[in-house]
Amino acid sequence: MACTVDLMKLPIQDIKIGHWTDTEAKTGCTVIRFPKSVVASGEVRGGAPATREFELLAPERTVENIDAVVISGGSAFGLASSIGVVEFLEELDIGFPTTQGVVPIVVGMSLYDLGVGSPSIRPGVNEGRIACLDGENDEIETGNIGAGTGATTGNWRGQENLSNGGIGIASAELEGVVVCSLFAVNAAGDVTDGNISEHLIKESFELSTKEGASEATELMNTTLGVVMTNLSLTKSECFLLSQSSHDGIARSIFPSHTRMDGDAVVAVSTKQLDADSRKFDIARALSIFVTEKAIRQACV
Predict the structure, then answer these.
(1) CATH class, range 2-298
(2) Which residues make Cβ contacts (< 8 Å) with residue 206, sequence separation at least 6?
(3) What is this structure's pTM?
(4) DSSP structure class, residue 231
(5) Pairing relation of β-strands 222-231 and 177-186?
(6) What span, in angstroms and rounded, lies between the C-alpha atoms of 27 and 113?
(7) Exposed (0-12), middle (13-18) or buried (19+): which is 162, by Cβ within 10 Å?
């Protein structure tokens, strides 16, 4: 099921979000394009990431700015969709300036959806371009759309316990500080209300060891997200913001950051609001909140 979010109502402007979706093959990709000179960093906490250009997000790396993030299905195969976005941006003369022309900086993250739909159909170069064009619309769908088309949750307890995952978007504002998040939820664990009891843990592990339950090597999953703020942050501060977002993943998914998840978050500053220590603390708190909210919205 999908619902629609009006991009014009999101409080951070000039960010374009688009999808490519194959409902029959149950896969897709989602592209988030940013205005010029945003600063970004990020962190992976899952044990099995499928990423492209993620290493350049480390605070000590030279490049501070990125042009787009691509979240795709198709596992590592789906990273090819990022090339379509790179080519699209090059045609618009968007990217890191070099003496031989611009080089678009596009971070890619993929989730594993090959176990549903058709494993032979994955997002590629053309599909990344289509998602860029879709981003010219003022509205964006959430739920089982784009990278969330084939997303599921809960299979750590066995295939019979699968629930829908999907794409979720949330935003919040406090004292002028705005934080928005987009998450593709395809977790091995369950999306919860935050109330984890000893009984639930025991029950879940009993289900995971029942005859016919999935083997650990079958539990290929991942929760991937982008957290965006209008606050002017350094690359190191963006890294800390991404860490706070991971706290939101841990508060809304149980278990999270497993060895078979590739959980990753990119944090982006659009530098529209001057920062101080108080505002930065607000941004980190809001990133936890909007991460939880987006993850739960994705699975409605």
Answers:
(1) alpha beta
(2) none
(3) 0.91
(4) E
(5) antiparallel
(6) 7
(7) middle
pLDDT, tens only, 47-104: 888 999 999 999 999 999 999 999 999 999 999 999 999 999 999 999 999 999 999 9
Determine whether 274 is exposed, middle or buried from the number of CB atoms within 10 Å of its CB (0-12, 13-18, 19+). exposed
Tokens representing residue 96 in the block: 């890191």
In whole angstroms, what is the distance from residue 130 CA to residue 88 CA?
10
Specify whether the CB–CB gap between 84 and 122 falls below 8 A: no
What's the chain's Rg over C-alpha atoms? Answer: 18
Find out whether 148 and 110 touch, Cβ atoms under 8 Å.
Answer: no
- Which 3 state secondary structure label does DSSP give 125? helix
Determine the distance from the C-alpha atom of residue 138 to the mean position of all C-alpha atoms in its chain, rounded to a whole number: 20
Q: Where are the domains of the chain?
A: 2-298
Identify the bridge partners of residue 69 per DSSP, sorted by sequence position: 32, 107
Q: What token pair was written down for 284?
A: 């980190």
Contacts of 290 (CB under 8 A, 6+ apart): 170, 171, 172, 179, 180, 181, 227, 248
What residues pair up with 273 in beta bridges, in sequence order?
231
List, in order, residues 6 or more apart from 10 with CB less than 8 Å away: 169, 171, 180
Which two structure tokens, joined as six digits, stand for 31? 């592209």
Measure CA 247 to chain center. Answer: 14
- Please give the structure tokens belonging to residue 22: 């194959």
Burial of 38 (0-12, 13-18, 19+ CB in 10 A): buried
